[in-house]
Amino acid sequence: MDISKCETCIEDCPQAQGRHEEATGRMYAMRELAKCAPYWDALFGENDKPKITPDRLREMMEADRDGRVVILPVKVGGMVYRVITTRDCPPLLSEIEIKTVEQAASLIGHMGKHLLISYYHTLEAAKAALKGEGDCS
User: Fold this and answer.
1) Residue 133 — pLDDT band, cuts 50, 70, 90?
2) Residue 108, pLDDT above cutoff 80
């Protein structure tokens, strides 16, 4: 039997070796748990209740691998701010509530500054874009 001494084990005896192996096992488990930590909040809610079932997670991962997952630029029920810029001044700012998935999907690739119609996530960003438009002279 190998008998060793480490910071955890004070004595040179078989029992100390057992404590060493136990401590090493706990350290290994802690390292493995630390690898999972970044995913914990995404997978579990309050009281460690799962936010997603394993079957749904598997389905989402398969869809992602197949290239079938699309991230919408805004959620249904969210607001976007549209700035319409024409040759005739002044630019027009309007607030739009996103009511359907189709409406949200239509904004893919259209968020931010564009030539005539621009969409922004926040009112502040839309107002900042208006200030950058210049005057009508």
Assistant:
1) low
2) yes
Strands 117-120 and 92-97: unpaired
Distance (Å) of CA 14 to CA 4, 18, 50, 67, 70: 9, 6, 42, 56, 58
Q: Tokens in use for 69? A: 């997952």
Instruction: Report the Cα 132 to chain-centroid distance in Å.
Output: 30
pTM exceeds 0.70 for this model: no
Starting from the edge strand earliest in sequence, which strands make up the sheet with 117-120, in order? 92-97, 79-84, 117-120
Neighbours of 9 (CB within 10 A): 19
Closest CA to 118 of 89, 96, 85: 85
